[in-house]
Design brief:
The protein has helices at 8-14, 142-149, and strands spanning 2-6, 29-30, 35-42, 45-52, 61-64, 75-81, 89-95, 99-108, 113-124, 127-137, 151-155, 161-166, 172-177, 185-196, 201-213, 224-225, 231-242, 248-256, 262-271. It is elongated and about 70 Å long. It is built from 2 helices and 19 strands. The longest helix has 8 residues, at 142-149. By secondary structure, it is mostly beta strands. 6% of the residues lie in helices and 55% in strands.
């Protein structure tokens, strides 16, 4: 019997490598890398400003989260900008209904989110009337994830292998191979995954499947792409403690939208 299911963030929390502190968004606050956040509430309109002393990562910017937060919204974005002098972000929000809602800002490149900010607000009579809480999720670095992810993983109940290694830009290079030679060919799938704070998983958008002929080593021709080179998906890490054991057993679950948005495999590490 197994117990205590974790995702990547929970595994890191257990290892003491990750924290998600709360803050009172009515006052200015700072994170450890020199980003200050302040809010202004005027005539029922809330304005959020972010100032950063750091150099923003290439192609990354702050924006209001456009995805589903799971509840009906009673707040909407009026305007936002990441080009105002001295600011990394400025955005204004208004009420559309009465109730409680969360304004979420994400630090993203359009593919994945490194950090996010939540501002929990109350609305009444068509106005935002107060901020009742919030939180900030900081970036999780590849070096923190590496001890849990690097190495070769074998598919549960299958013959595929997943090989994970670090890239120079803070991601993980992944190669999934079938280890076989049916019809004289071997099939492998490559992608580069980056940790998405919202999804708590490595996400990728460059998945490419190859079919290569098995040779005696004399033939060094490059494999030819067999399918579209634009596969998207994710790798989610779960950890489970065996009953009466202290060792954490890790499993990586692979989900690829190119295969009909279904779970397509799980892997256990055989080499670290």
């Amino acid at each position: 019997m197994k117990k205590n299911l974790f995702m990547i963030g929970s595994v890191l929390l257990a290892a003491g490598l990750l924290s998600v502190p709360a803050f009172a968004a009515e006052t200015e606050t700072e994170d450890p890398v020199g980003t200050s956040i302040d809010t202004e509430l005027t005539d029922g309109v809330m304005t959020i400003r972010i100032r950063s002393d750091r150099d923003d990562a290439p192609d990354f910017h702050w924006e209001a989260y456009k995805g589903d937060k799971g509840d009906s919204s009673c707040v909407e974005l009026i305007t936002e900008s990441d080009t105002e002098e001295g600011l990394s972000y400025a955005g204004s929000f208004r009420a559309t209904d009465d109730g409680e809602d969360t304004i979420r800002l994400v630090y993203t490149n359009g593919h994945y989110t490194k950090e996010y900010l939540d501002f929990d607000v109350t609305t009444e009579d068509g106005k935002i009337v107060e901020t009742i809480g919030g939180g900030q999720a900081f970036e999780t670095f590849a070096s923190d994830l590496a001890p849990f992810l690097l190495g070769v993983w074998q598919e549960d109940g299958g013959n595929r292998f997943l090989d994970l290694s670090m890239t120079d830009d803070g991601g993980f290079s992944a190669v999934i191979s079938d280890g076989g030679g049916r019809d004289g060919n071997t099939v492998f799938y490559t992608m580069t995954g980056y940790y998405d704070t919202l999804q708590d998983a490595l996400v990728y958008w460059n998945g490419t499947q190859y079919t290569a002929a098995i040779t005696d080593g004399a033939d060094e021709t490059e494999p030819e792409a067999d399918v579209t080179p634009d596969g998207t998906g994710l790798f989610a890490l779960d950890g489970q403690f065996e009953e009466d054991e202290d060792d954490l057993v890790l499993t990586i679950y692979w989900k690829d939208d190119s295969f009909g948005n279904t779970d397509v495999g799980s892997f256990r590490r055989i080499e670290s």
